[in-house]
Specification:
single chain, Rossmann fold, 7-stranded parallel β-sheet, 3-stranded mixed β-sheet, about 35% helix, about 15% strand
Length: about 375
Amino acid sequence: MTRRDLLKLGALASVALMTGRAQIPASPPARPLRILILGGTGFTGPHQVRYALARGHRITLFNRGRRPQDWPGEVDELTGDRDTGDLASLAGREWDVCIDNPTSVPFWVRDAGTALRGRIGHYVFISTLSVYADTSRPGMDESGPLAAYRGRDVMAETRASLQADMGLYGPLKAACEAEAARQFPDITTVIRPGLIVGPGDETDRFTYWPVRMARGGEVLLPGDGTDPVQFIDARDLAEWTIRMAEQRVLGVFNAMGPERELTVAPMLEGIRTAVGGEAQFTAVPVDFLRAQRVAPWSDLPVWVPAQGAYTGFARLNNTRALKTGLTFRPLAVTAADTLAWFNTLPEARRTKLRAGLSAEREAEVLQAWREQRAART
């Protein structure tokens, strides 16, 4: 091994350290809580349930009962349908805390208030960084201006109308936050994650990269590799949410990692090191990708050019969350675990990723870039 190799390994080790704040074993909770989780069977919910059970809490789930799961402990499962306002199974019960995972439309919050007001001591609403009206300013904290809903009666918006127009997502989440403050005054915590990643993510918005690195070959690296990225492992988000409930921490929090700024090139290098494979990177300028109609976020997940209205998109301030104990698994752990989970899925599911460039399209763009460079020389 040469000195150059040693320096390279040292740099990669530094990358791994930068992408995760060391996890500190959480002290035992002061007492077991009665926790109601609305949802609980999606992406982050199961991680919340398992962590809470491991810490001695009593868990009740409320959902439509369409995703039964085996839990490592006793879980009380109630069924209902928030689309139709059927929350009858919540009647006559009390909990220390309610964690609301799936809500994206304000009337769900209103109905939860009607059903639970006076019968819970703490309401935790899982929101989104999409509530912000302006992501052009780096370092924006929780006081940033929120997207305003402009349309018909906001309580008339349903999940179906949101699915028909995803442009409503941020404004409706912001309206949900406002409704939470009305329904549960002085007992509300709002958590604003952005891109949630890790094992169990059915969107493939991060999974694309571990899978792509493992395949090897020439990999398209977007831009010059210096655009920042932010994301959070679903397990880190879930476990911190439970600890926030244990401590009854109120307020609004940006829930994003890593602790310090991470950019595209070190992220991809860290993923490559974690999963193996013989990947070689070719950086392709943003303007060329734009001309080729390669879309940030969807065609090249996690990445958005830090330009114009998106200059601060992946530079949001997470200081408040860090001060309350938010920690992060290293990037290497998230990448390796995500790939291992993905490889357990049926072959038909693994054949076509739900985000990212296909192998054929990536090869086309790389070939077009080589031809343009050759024509200029």
